[in-house]
Amino acid sequence: MYKLIILMCLTCFYSLSNVTLAEEKQVLPSLLRICDDDAEWPPFTYFSRIPGEKTKLKGYSVEVLASILKPINQPYKIDMINWNRCKYEVKNSKRYHMLIDASLNKQRRNNFLHSNNYYDTHTYYFYAKAHHPNGIHISSYKDLKQYRLVGMQGYNYSTYDLNDSDISIYKNSQRKIFNMLLHNRADLYLERIEIIAGFAALGENFLANNNIGYSPLPSTAPMSFHMLFPKTSQGKKLRDFFNHKLKQLKSEGILERLLNKYLEPTLINKH
């Protein structure tokens, strides 16, 4: 009798699991197409390297996606493309269904649906010691406008009360930006310390350069990062699906474990 009850319970459990899996597969396209910035975003999304060649895509965000999609055998593909094009393609439901590694601002809230945050970063400002031997001391966002600011193309600076016109020049790579500082073509660069530390994994250890000074930007809360989806019925289903899965990963401690795996080797400054 007890064996029969146990068998019935197991049958019910597996039936419910199959129904849930079938429902999840109905939400997802046959091939889920995801894009991100080709400038790379270590330690969250970047390519491992052999001399002279990019190889496998890796990082925290890549493993989060794998933790969600591989257990349900969902085919997916991540393409690293121009960031502005990535946003355009997702917003207009063109080639891609979603993008990853995005902070939020008013424009993005208007243009996209967004997931719950799945990691946070901390903003620092960077400068060249040779051109500012006494350092740069920032006490408020207003102080930033006294300097020639260099920014990354397509990135979100409104969080710091900056307009596009407040950025003197934009570049499309971290190396070019730090060269601007070192050659006195810009004074100041705002970036998340986790990202700059993460570039050591790409062979570009900017924090080890003794000519670069950096400090945390005062009165700045951690910046949250999200997945973005188009404002369509399918986009809403995808947003709800990923929010459900992210909640599961968080409750199981998987998000924290993955984050520690990628941040601990690279993050020099603890928060």
TrEMBL record:
SUPFAM superfamilies, per the entry: Periplasmic binding protein-like II
Keyword vocabulary terms for this entry: Signal
Keyword Ion transport listed: no
Ranges of residues in domain Solute-binding protein family 3/N-terminal: 38-264
InterPro entries in the cross-refs: Solute-binding_3/MltF_N
Keyword Signal recorded: yes
Signal sequence, start to end: 1-22
Chain ranges passing through the membrane: none
Domain of life: Bacteria
Family: Belongs to the bacterial solute-binding protein 3 family.
PANTHER family: ABC TRANSPORTER SUBSTRATE-BINDING PROTEIN, MEMBRANE-BOUND LYTIC MUREIN TRANSGLYCOSYLASE F
Protein name: Transporter substrate-binding domain-containing protein
Natural source organism: Zooshikella harenae
